[in-house]
Amino acid sequence: MTLLQRAVRALRPASTGALTGASRARLLDMSYSRLRFSVYMMPLVALPLVVYLGWDPQAGWMRAWGLVYLVLSLVVYGVAQLYRAEQRLMTDEAMLARWQPRVHALAWLHGAGLSLGLLAMAQVAVQEASMLAYLVMAHIVSTNATHQTPAVGVFLRFFATSWNTMMVMAYWIFPALWHVVVPLAAIYSLVIYRHALLSHHFSVEQLQLKERSEELAAKFLAAREETELALREKSLFLSTASHDLRQPLHAMSMLVEAVALRNRDAAIAPMLHDLRHGMDSMNLMFNSLLDLSKLEAGHIEQRPVPVVLQTVLKELATLFREQARRRGIALRLRLPRGAAIVMADPALLRQAVANLTHNALRYTERGGVLIALRALAGSWRIEVWDTGVGIAPADRDRIFSPFYRNAHAWRIDSAGHGLGLAVVARCARLLDAALGFQSRPGRGSRFWLGLPRAAQALAGDPATPQAHAGAGLPRLAGNCLVVDDDPLVNAAWREMLSAWGIQGFFAENATQAFQLLDYGFQPDAILCDQRLRSGESGVEVLQALLVRCPQAGGAMVSGEFDSSELQRAEQEGRIVLRKPVDLAQLHGVLSQWLGRTAAGSA
Length: 602
What we know:
Elements: H1 3-10, H2 21-53, H3 60-89, H4 92-122, H5 127-147, H6 152-161, H7 163-173, H8 178-262, H9 269-296, E1 305-308, H10 309-327, E2 330-334, E3 341-344, H11 346-362, E4 368-376, E5 379-386, H12 407-412, H13 420-431, E6 434-440, E7 444-452, E8 474-483, H14 487-499, E9 502-507, H15 510-518, E10 525-529, H16 538-548, E11 553-558, H17 564-571, E12 575-578, H18 583-593, E13 595-601
Helix pairs in contact: 2-3, 2-4, 2-5, 3-4, 4-5, 4-6, 4-7, 5-8, 6-7, 6-8, 7-8, 8-9, 8-14, 9-11, 10-11, 11-13
């Protein structure tokens, strides 16, 4: 770029074409308000000059100039009220089209008025008075060069009819000094013009930054709304589909329990025991899935209870062992002797450790993952070690942010969404747990959760393993009516109830249920599914059956958790069993309505 090109560029006003109509209207509004203020000040400028000249006959022009500016100030004030009124009613583009020519006209007029003021002062024979007026006008022009320049066109029109006109007038006002005054005035004109451009550039850049920040804020809000919508849609999907998702799991749980209760082969007893615990883990993780969706949406609160950490970590190790085997990764568990007990929400704690373990397995290509429990002074620390890609120092402050994934994560697994560690951080906040990590790129990472110790007495004797929920329960006797339209679930109900000594009768809808009653069947217990394919409300069907059979006990069975209908039923005192039904809870409910046999336990 040549020197001439640089000079031309330095003397060129900033382009406002990229600005929105609102920003250009804002620039015009700032220049107009300052132009009006300059007009309002002119009578006050004229006053000391008139006082200085006194009643000199030659000062009449100056008094007339001050009076004209006083009238002009009143007119400009009245027009400004019209401007404000229209500003509230018209669009920015309409205001620009209507008022920009008017503001330009006022700038021409005000500049010419200043020149006339200098000419009026020049009528006084005293040369010092003319020089004083020239300096006053120079100061007024320099002030306007700072204030009027947001819309630079306003200032340039004012500048052309004020100072540039005064510069030419200097030849006649200072006939003995014009060869000094005119060059100085020309230099001053160039300096003022350059200063005006700098001030204009600053105003335009400020509005560009404002527009950019508003654009970024709008994009951020849109992204946040999109994320919240996705979370709401996911929660809605889980809530809507939970019934269909829970049905097979519900049936499997009862079938496994029925097989285990009827088994007489000691050789397969250990396998059935493992299968029972596997089903328990599946039920637990399925329930945690809904809790996770609520957690991500910010709609969950913690419910702390005594938790034995060894039990939680063993369940998670069992859950992830097959995934580790498929990836060829060693998954190890290191636990201390004795019980490690903390006060925490089990679902939140399990979800946090599960996410840490899942992340460790996902981003470890070779080596292994270790889940460890360490005793510290007054607390327990759960640690998850891996030999994965590690975390770069530049990413350390962002890994717990939602949707953030580093380059290594994208390379290894492009299917993730960057929510895993964000959920861990949220769980840790709700649990009031210490969360931290150490990592070496290419070597691996160690994440930990720290929780205060709880008194061992709170959880009883955690070292003694608890029997499975369905083991050792007493056999029952009686009739139970089950209203469910899923054949697979009904088959599971039949086997489960039979294993407990209960005679089960089954109906797919209210019509079939009442037909059984018409045939003389008298149930001791009624279990009714909430969602029936016939479109009937399970709650209403159960209420009608209990009216017909007042001697029977009744409970709802549902795979939904946020149903307002179920909430009303619970408030009215109805028992609601959530799928997959906890078998110990089910047995306890049925034992209230059915008699026990003398055959012992199931």
